[in-house]
């Protein structure tokens, strides 16, 4: 009991550190002024920033674009990354180590470094200003494959061996044993891919020039007019931009907990 | 011969090829093209001219390059160990809390839901600014206000934002790793009378090695290519004191349009991250 109280004290301390900037953003979104110098407790609450955001800017279109884009990217990653991670974890395919090094290399190289060759390739393929052009480079994230590989390599190989004895096929093992056991990792893969797509700045910046196809990360900074930062609008858009990610998180968290139920008793 | 290879590994090839193809086409080929640019002189408007290793020679004699390398390492030294240990500790705490841990989990994860470029703007003005949240409180309490973006404090301030942004997410990854530890091993240890500390040292830590390698590489690569936070908060200043290597390559490539020179700097950045990865995977190798 004492131990639990102690743990909660630490957890709440951390909670304060993490939440203050988020709450501060929220507080700024309710203020009317253009400056960040506002009292901690608002004297009057105004939803004007949100009104301006919805009525006078294409914010909702950006939100819709970003949401569609991120959901598709997440789906593709969850589809492709675990199987590749599984093959690499078991390392039976000749050259697995080499492939892994290639994947890690692809991961650690920033998009910024490859912009010109990527743009040239994309325009040759006719993918500039299309959603496909945005989605394909992110469809399988090396990071997701690497995480899946690291997680799956912890699953004891004996489980697979006994399944083979019972007559399971290779694909059967993957779908019936490995995937269900990897649920917590799949949840992280999904979250990670979603965030990667959601927060990606560089790809939408060079691939999309049409206003109707813009993403939030490009649109929100452009709400600063003539170099003047309207803190209220920026904060309001950020707060509203958080919401879908929280919804995804809560939905996935339920799934995560289901995965957890299979391994009860962890203390 | 080749047919036999395809037949023997048909499931493996089927499972891995979509991922490998996409990564190869959209990342690795552009990388190879981009790196080969480092051997040329190219200002976008003219055609690339082969100049051998001249770009690298020039790079190694530029004090600003070494300054950027040092800054990158400084960010790494500050951020990588603190996030790694911090997130492991948070995961262990969340794992031990019996009630309400999903609430904490959701809350800790919030920073990551704000795109870093936007979070950084908010930290800069609303939080670290002269009239921002922190100085607001400090002056009310009678202290002097702090210049968070001075030459001395710019890097630590940016690192703090990074720590804030990644900590919760990394602990979620660790938490998933903790859930993956086979239950039987922990039960067997309990029966043998192991206490919590012994369980952490002898069972949890070794089983977490693959996940630690992932988290370590995740933080390493985000830290070594720290960009949007710097861009939004200091622009690399004051007097280049917070300018990391990726920022240096950006300036030469996209501000001065010396693409070959910029590519040479990114080759160095790549070599830095890959050597840290090889070092980490050696330290965290599975026996």
Automatic annotation (TrEMBL), chain A:
<keyword id="KW-0762">Sugar transport</keyword>
<dbReference type="InterPro" id="IPR035906">
    <property type="entry name" value="MetI-like_sf"/>
</dbReference>
<dbReference type="GO" id="GO:0055085">
    <property type="term" value="P:transmembrane transport"/>
</dbReference>
<comment type="similarity">
    <text>Belongs to the binding-protein-dependent transport system permease family.</text>
</comment>
<keyword id="KW-1003">Cell membrane</keyword>
<dbReference type="InterPro" id="IPR000515">
    <property type="entry name" value="MetI-like"/>
</dbReference>
<feature type="transmembrane region" description="Helical">
    <location>
        <begin position="126"/>
        <end position="148"/>
    </location>
</feature>
<dbReference type="GO" id="GO:0005886">
    <property type="term" value="C:plasma membrane"/>
</dbReference>
<feature type="domain" description="ABC transmembrane type-1">
    <location>
        <begin position="63"/>
        <end position="252"/>
    </location>
</feature>
<protein>
    <submittedName>
        <fullName>Multiple sugar transport system permease protein</fullName>
    </submittedName>
</protein>
<keyword id="KW-0813">Transport</keyword>
<keyword id="KW-0472">Membrane</keyword>
<feature type="transmembrane region" description="Helical">
    <location>
        <begin position="67"/>
        <end position="89"/>
    </location>
</feature>
<feature type="transmembrane region" description="Helical">
    <location>
        <begin position="5"/>
        <end position="26"/>
    </location>
</feature>
<feature type="transmembrane region" description="Helical">
    <location>
        <begin position="98"/>
        <end position="120"/>
    </location>
</feature>
<keyword id="KW-1133">Transmembrane helix</keyword>
<keyword id="KW-0812">Transmembrane</keyword>
<feature type="transmembrane region" description="Helical">
    <location>
        <begin position="185"/>
        <end position="208"/>
    </location>
</feature>
<dbReference type="Pfam" id="PF00528">
    <property type="entry name" value="BPD_transp_1"/>
</dbReference>
<feature type="transmembrane region" description="Helical">
    <location>
        <begin position="228"/>
        <end position="252"/>
    </location>
</feature>
Automatic annotation (TrEMBL), chain B:
<feature type="transmembrane region" description="Helical">
    <location>
        <begin position="259"/>
        <end position="279"/>
    </location>
</feature>
<feature type="transmembrane region" description="Helical">
    <location>
        <begin position="12"/>
        <end position="33"/>
    </location>
</feature>
<dbReference type="InterPro" id="IPR051393">
    <property type="entry name" value="ABC_transporter_permease"/>
</dbReference>
<feature type="transmembrane region" description="Helical">
    <location>
        <begin position="106"/>
        <end position="123"/>
    </location>
</feature>
<dbReference type="GO" id="GO:0005886">
    <property type="term" value="C:plasma membrane"/>
</dbReference>
<feature type="transmembrane region" description="Helical">
    <location>
        <begin position="162"/>
        <end position="179"/>
    </location>
</feature>
<comment type="similarity">
    <text>Belongs to the binding-protein-dependent transport system permease family.</text>
</comment>
<feature type="domain" description="ABC transmembrane type-1">
    <location>
        <begin position="69"/>
        <end position="280"/>
    </location>
</feature>
<keyword id="KW-0812">Transmembrane</keyword>
<dbReference type="GO" id="GO:0055085">
    <property type="term" value="P:transmembrane transport"/>
</dbReference>
<dbReference type="InterPro" id="IPR035906">
    <property type="entry name" value="MetI-like_sf"/>
</dbReference>
<keyword id="KW-1003">Cell membrane</keyword>
<keyword id="KW-1133">Transmembrane helix</keyword>
<keyword id="KW-0472">Membrane</keyword>
<protein>
    <submittedName>
        <fullName>Multiple sugar transport system permease protein</fullName>
    </submittedName>
</protein>
<keyword id="KW-0762">Sugar transport</keyword>
<feature type="transmembrane region" description="Helical">
    <location>
        <begin position="200"/>
        <end position="219"/>
    </location>
</feature>
<keyword id="KW-0813">Transport</keyword>
<dbReference type="InterPro" id="IPR000515">
    <property type="entry name" value="MetI-like"/>
</dbReference>
<dbReference type="Pfam" id="PF00528">
    <property type="entry name" value="BPD_transp_1"/>
</dbReference>
<feature type="transmembrane region" description="Helical">
    <location>
        <begin position="73"/>
        <end position="94"/>
    </location>
</feature>
């Amino acid at each position: 009991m004492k131990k639990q109280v102690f743990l909660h004290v630490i957890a709440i301390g951390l909670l304060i550190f993490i939440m203050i900037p988020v709450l501060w953003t929220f507080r700024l979104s309710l203020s009317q002024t253009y400056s960040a110098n506002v009292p901690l407790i608002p004297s009057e609450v105004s939803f004007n920033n949100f009104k301006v955001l919805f009525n006078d800017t294409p914010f909702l279109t950006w939100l819709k674009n970003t949401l569609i884009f991120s959901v598709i990217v997440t789906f593709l990653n969850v589809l492709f990354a675990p199987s590749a991670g599984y093959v690499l974890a078991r390392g039976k395919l000749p050259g697995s180590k080499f492939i892994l090094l290639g994947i890690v290399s692809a991961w650690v190289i920033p998009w910024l470094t490859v912009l010109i060759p990527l743009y040239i390739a994309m325009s040759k393929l006719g993918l500039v200003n299309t959603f496909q052009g945005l989605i394909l480079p992110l469809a399988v994230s090396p990071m997701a494959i690497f995480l899946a590989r690291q997680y799956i390599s912890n699953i004891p190989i004996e489980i697979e061996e006994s399944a083979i004895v019972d007559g399971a096929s290779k694909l059967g093992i993957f779908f019936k044993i490995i995937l269900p056991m990897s649920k917590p990792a799949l949840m992280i893969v999904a979250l990670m891919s979603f965030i990667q797509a959601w927060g990606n700045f560089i790809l939408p910046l060079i691939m999309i020039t049409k206003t109707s196809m813009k993403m939030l990360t490009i649109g929100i900074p452009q709400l600063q007019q003539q170099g003047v930062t309207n803190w209220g609008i920026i904060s309001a858009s950020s707060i509203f931009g958080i919401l879908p990610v929280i919804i995804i998180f809560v939905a996935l968290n339920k799934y995560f907990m289901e995965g957890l139920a299979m391994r009860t008793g962890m203390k | 011969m080749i047919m036999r290879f395809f037949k023997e590994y048909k499931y493996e090839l089927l499972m891995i090829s979509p991922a490998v193809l996409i990564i190869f086409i959209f990342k690795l080929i552009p990388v190879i093209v981009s790196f080969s640019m480092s051997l040329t002189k190219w200002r976008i408007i003219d055609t690339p001219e082969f100049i051998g290793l001249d770009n690298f020679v020039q790079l190694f004699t530029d004090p600003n390059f070494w300054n950027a390398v040092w800054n990158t390492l400084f960010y790494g030294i500050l951020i990588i160990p603190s996030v790694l240990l911090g997130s492991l500790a948070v995961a262990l705490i969340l794992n031990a809390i019996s009630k309400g841990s999903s609430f904490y989990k959701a809350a800790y994860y919030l920073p990551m839901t704000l795109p870093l470029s936007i979070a950084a703007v908010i930290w800069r003005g609303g939080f670290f600014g002269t009239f921002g949240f922190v100085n607001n409180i400090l002056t009310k309490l009678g202290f002097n206000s702090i210049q968070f973006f001075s030459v001395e404090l710019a890097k630590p301030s940016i690192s703090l934002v990074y720590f804030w942004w990644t900590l919760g997410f990394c602990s979620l990854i660790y938490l998933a790793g903790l859930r993956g530890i086979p239950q039987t091993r922990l039960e067997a240890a309990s029966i043998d009378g192991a206490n919590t500390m012994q369980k952490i040292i002898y069972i949890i830590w070794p089983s977490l090695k693959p996940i630690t390698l992932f988290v370590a590489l995740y933080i390493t690569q985000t830290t070594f290519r720290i960009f949007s936070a710097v861009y939004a908060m200091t622009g690399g200043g004051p007097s280049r004191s917070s300018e990391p290597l990726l920022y240096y390559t950006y300036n030469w490539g996209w501000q001065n349009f010396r693409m070959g020179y910029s590519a040479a700097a990114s080759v160095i950045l790549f070599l830095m991250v890959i050597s840290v990865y090889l070092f980490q995977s050696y330290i965290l190798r599975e026996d």
